[in-house]
Amino acid sequence: MIITLTEYLLLSPEIFILTMACLILVVEAFVGDRYRQASYVLAQLTLLVAAFISGSLIDNEALVMLGGMYVHDPMAALLKTSVFLVTIGAFAYARSYMTAQGGLRGEYYVLGLFAVLGMQVMISSHSLLTVYLGLELLSLSLYAMVAFDRDSPTASEAAMKYFVLGALASGMLLYGMSMLYGATGSLDIATIADVISAQGERSLVLVFGLCFIVVGLAFKFGAVPFHMWVPDVYHGAPTAVTLFIGSAPKIAAFAMAMRLLAESMGGLLVDWQGMLMILAVLSLAIGNVVAIAQTNMKRMLAYSTISHVGFLMLGILSGTDSGYSASMFYAITYALMAIGGFGVIILLSRSGEEADQLDDFRGLNDRSPWFALMMLILMFSMAGVPPTVGFYAKLAVLKAVIDVDMVWLALVAVFFSIIGAFYYIRIIKLMYFDEPVTDAPLKINTDLQIAVSTNSLLVLGLGLFPGALLALCNGVLA
Amino acid sequence: MIDYPLLSLLVWLPIAGAAALLAMDAMGNPGCRVMALLVSLATFVLSLSLYTNFDFTTAAMQFQENVPWIEAISANYHLGVDGISMPLIILTTFTTVLVVLAGWEVIQDKAAQYMAAFLVMEGLMNGVFAALDAVLFYVFWEAMLIPMFIIIGVWGGPKRVYATIKFFLYTFLGSVFMLVALIYMYLQADSFSILDFHVLSLGMTEQILIFIAFLMAFAVKVPMWPVHTWLPDAHVEAPTGGSVILAAIMLKIGGYGFLRFSLPITPDASHALDWLIILMSLVAVVYIGFVALVQQDMKKLIAYSSIAHMGFVTLGIFLVFTLMDNNDSLSGAALGMEGGMVQMISHGFISGALFLCVGVLYDRMHSRQINDYGGVANTMPVFAAFMVLFAMANAGLPGTSGFVGEFMVILASFKANFWFAFLAATTLILGAAYSLWMVKRVIFGEIANDNVRQLQDVNKREFVILASLAAMVLLFGLYPAPLTEIMHASVDNLLAHLSVSKLPPAETGIALLEAARP
Question: Could you tell me the end-to-end alpha-carbon distance of chain B, in angstroms, rounded to an integer?
């Protein structure tokens, strides 16, 4: 197999991330305490360069390479760029967390970069095996990250749960893939699609394989009824890890759904449409309703993630390009909101203890009007209230769903988003209407201030001018 | 004509002012009140040039601005006003000045945030009235909830949290279904322009569903019986300024929505379902009038009276179809519709004034209970004169603006149906009963207790606020022509639009057959 220069160019973000991840691992082992920040700076630079390269590749023609295992297309380039940028934000928050709490070390960045590499492979996969490879690389990095705080019983429990359930999900996925291989005789996504559309009648084994693949996907997304790991992992993991798990991997999961469902099994749309419908409605219902009962902020955001996944699936199940691009927009903007939400938890935490109870938000407006305003923007964005970007994400998805004559599904979605609005505005109520429980002034270092402010203002700015990103999402799928 | 983006200025100047004000406050500058007053005055003066430059002869949108905004969904930043929305914008800018003044001394806690919230509110409400693009409209419409939510929740009374969350969820519930309807129409029309929606051909089933979606949004906002229950809570718990904005402007947005969306977009469904709206309006007028009668809390009483008065607005607007069926002339229909619109403006002044009056009393006594007062006229003669005037206006006394709108609507309903008029006219009795009985118990009589004996009369600031409102109430009561003049062209155009069915040809025949059936 000869790899051409163009292919090297298209693969350069992956090669770069891999090289740098190995390099940072070595640097981390050899530099002393004096250069603690070296790995952080290197990791951020790596991501920045990778984001730049893959951002400039968006306009390149689609190309299948490495013997049909790997694909570059505009969608992949856009999703990878978003993953890099979101991860830059996540790392920035994580550093502040580590400075304040101790405990985590430079391995966080190394594992994070490997997870990013896994996501890249998932996003660009053109074969069932590559999908699985990327997924496992991502998952293994995440398991290790959750277990980082090894003295904490909740973190260990979360890691164990995550690992066992994740392995189960991978097993399901692999089982489904093997059936798909048996029915079509190929692992290549394009070939599978051809075979399925050539078969007039779909075989039982194919639909059976599809079921298992959807289950595996739902597990990774955290969609109801395969969501049980989400609250425990979000709650148990250190906040710096939670915010990473809750953000960029959702973009990768979207890509996996695109590759597996839309691209390889587009011919089975009617079958997976119904399955996703059930998953989406259940996720919207359970996520939004159960979130109301939470007193822990991280658990509340976990259930909120579940409900957002429901919305995201609505776009995918509409089965049109505008639906896929709406879901893509949703995944990217949701990742942006999620790191912001967890970022504020980090911002509130005092050294040695996490501020992950809802009560920690009481009276934030008295302690710091600016950050209360930033959190207000993030919460209204998650609730989908304009003029924040969360509104356009919902608007785009609803439009796609109504476009395929599923108005009832849109009505269900907006109905549950009203219920969802309640727990988001409850946070605002705590921040603005209640008295603070502690008078301790917020000690926030400057780069965390900058990170949270940029993050929230971006959510607001994209809400005022969402046109460019929407057009980009439409463009890469056209 | 004006060659600068006047409407954009009216939307963004207050919002920019609010940002500047917060920044000033963060730097420790104490001048936030003066700053807020200057910004609101500047906006008000600017908005007057809407009136002076307005072309009364046309129903077309004026002062239009149209630039592409979100090209991916073909949404534009499209602003423009006609005779329906222009007076409401001036009402907004006028009321905001008064609200800023009213909060001058009372609000000591986080005053900068208070003023900023009202300025943001002003900009967003102007945006709602001026938006001609459905996405832009919806953005302003929903964004408006955020400052109001904060205003009630931070500066409100003891049960403010319950009231504000109820307010938020109620209005959010109404509006998300409207969003679904808007998206549906976008997919039909391939454009988010409201003017394109007006000419969009829709089948009867679609029209009815869209009409119901709009009804959920606007009925909650107006509010119409039976979805009015958030209003008394929100009013009672809101600070004075919040109550004034709620009553004077936010309720009007519901009425405006009917005129801008429901009627022109779904004329056939509006025609088919007008009995429902008329029924709900009459229930509001009669039943809520009785409810107002038994209130012990002054703010609650005025809140219920607002619901009853807004019933007149929706009644006047939806009488048009009965009137058009009764005779071919559109003048009767125009009377009802203009009556409803005059009632909106007039109620803006009167209810705002009454809430400010209660605010004046509350600042001194920290009570809104009618029983805690009595004989206020003895210690506060100037204030008593204003309060009696506004109560009379609320009861619809000829010579005040309250009379004009009510009279026009009752007259129109007489032409439509005797029983409509009979029920609507009960408001003349009920309105007088609850308004004057409250005045009797609060203002007149012997001085009830020592607290009342120690009351101080209004200061200069309060005098200016109440006097300017009194001037407006009397001006439009004695000479309403300037107001109706603005509306004529737009109302005639709307009526002409309503008299033409929007049903696709295949359905028109069926609709005609059904209409002809006895």
Answer: 52
Mean pLDDT of chain A: 89
Q: For chain A, what's the residue count?
A: 478
Closest CA to B40 of B98, B113, B85, B126: B98
Bridge partners for A65 per DSSP: A70
Query: Taking an 8 Å Cβ-Cβ cutoff, which residues of chain A contact chain B?
Result: 365, 369-370, 376, 380, 385-387, 391-392, 395-396, 398-399, 402-403, 407, 410-411, 414-415, 417-418, 421-422, 425-426, 428-429, 432-433, 465-467, 470-471, 473-474
Q: What is the 3-state secondary structure (H, E, C) of B263-317?
A: HHHCHHHHHHCHHHHHHHHHHHHHHHHHHHHCCCEHHHHHHHHHHHHHHHHHHHH
In which band, very low, low, confident or very high, does the pLDDT at A164 lie, cut at 50, 70 and 90? Answer: very high
Distance in angstroms (rounded) separating the CA atoms of residues B342 and B345: 5
- pLDDT at residue A368, as a whole number: 84
Look at residue A13 and tell me whether its pLDDT is greater than 60.
yes
d(CA A235, CA A231): 6
Three-class secondary structure of residue B244 per DSSP: helix
**CB-side exposure of B128: number of CA atoms within 13 Å?**
26
More confident residue, A303 or B507: A303
Whether B254 and B222 have beta carbons less than 8 Å apart is answered as yes
Chain A residue numbers touching B187 (CB-CB < 8 A): 399, 402-403
The phi, psi pair for A62, rounded to 5°, reads -65, 140
Contacts B183 to A, Cβ<8 Å = 395, 398-399, 402, 410
Which helix (H) or strand (E) covers residue A413, if one does?
A: helix A407-433
A245 contacts A166 by C-beta, under 8 angstroms: no
CB B385 within 8 A of CB B290: no
Question: B457: alpha, beta or left, given left = phi > 0 and alpha = psi -120 to 50?
Answer: beta
Token couple for A178 = 């093997």
CB contact under 8 A, A470 and B153: no
Question: CB under 8 Å to B419, separation ≥6 — which residues?
Answer: none
Give the rounded percent of residues in chain B with a pLDDT score beyond 70: 96
Residue B216 phi/psi, 5-degree rounding, is -60, -40
Once rounded to an integer, what is the mean pLDDT over residues A459-477? 89
CA B323 to chain centre: 25
Q: What is the pLDDT of residues B451-472, one digit of tens each?
A: 778 878 888 888 888 999 999 8
Distance (Å) from the alpha carbon of A345 to chain B's nearest alpha carbon? 22
**Which amino acid type is present at position B66?**
N
What ipTM, to 2 d.p.? 0.86
Instruction: Give the integer Cα–Cα distance in Å for B79 and B123.
Output: 13
This prediction's pTM: 0.90
The C-alpha of A330 sits at a distance from chain B's nearest C-alpha, in angstroms, of: 15
Helix ranges (H only) for B53-159 are 86-102, 111-130, 134-143, 145-155
Strand partners, A188: A127
Q: What is the pLDDT of residues B238-284, one digit of tens each?
A: 888 888 998 889 889 999 999 999 888 988 888 888 889 999 999 98
Place of tokens 């259930």: A303
Give per-residue pLDDT as tens, A208-224.
999 999 999 999 898 98
Number of H helices, E strands in chain B: 26, 2
- Of B210, B11, B24, B3, give the one whose Cα is nearest residue B113: B24
Enumerate the β-bridge partners of residue B79.
B65, B131
B72: DSSP letter:
G
How far apart (Å, rounded) are the C-alpha atoms in residues B326 and A226? 62
pLDDT at A34: 65
A385 vs B145: CB contact, 8 Å cut-off?
A: yes
pLDDT at B337: 87
Q: What angle do CA B236, B237, B238 make, to 5 degrees?
A: 100
H helices present in B327-416, as ranges: 331-365, 376-379, 381-395, 401-416
